[in-house]
Amino acid sequence: MKHLHLLFVALAFASFAGRLALAEFKPDMLAQKWLKIAPHVIAALLLLSGIALVFQGRWLEGDYGWIVAKVVVLPIFIVLGLLAMKREGTARWGFAGGALLCFLYIAKVAVSKTVFPLSKVSVGTHAELDTQRSA
User: Which domain range does residue 107 map to?
Assistant: First the structure.
């Protein structure tokens, strides 16, 4: 399931980057029906495989703040991506950069399983923190 989810992550990123390039250089191509439908199918499969991974990995039984962080940032990524597709010029690239940062944050959180993946501070359960303090 993990590899399938990673495939959908790669497809979602490629789809975003490809549609962004089309919006900039060949916007008329975005009117094609398959280019309107495919991103939604990919996103749905990505979300379903992510939900399946949560239950398969039994991640809701432990510290799941990292899952919540991903769910909170996901709509921000979607809104910024939509704005990047609709705007032109430097605004497009600003929104695209913001969407890319959200995407990278979600990926880093998924790998590190922590809400603050760039911090050296460990965020864990109270029992884990008590153990770290006493050590």
Answer: 61-135
Q: Is the pLDDT of residue 104 over 80?
A: yes
Question: How far apart (Å, rounded) are the C-alpha atoms in residues 23 and 53?
Answer: 33
Range 89-93, long-range pairs (CB < 8 A, 24+ positions):
92/20, 92/23, 92/24
| Block residue for tokens 């990123």 | 13
* Number of domain units in the chain: 2
Q: What is the pLDDT of residue 91?
A: 94
CA atoms of 110 and 81, how far apart (whole Å): 20
For 77-99, how does the pLDDT look when each residue is reduced to its tens digit (9 = 90+)? 999 999 999 999 999 999 999 99
Supply 82's token pair.
Answer: 């939509």
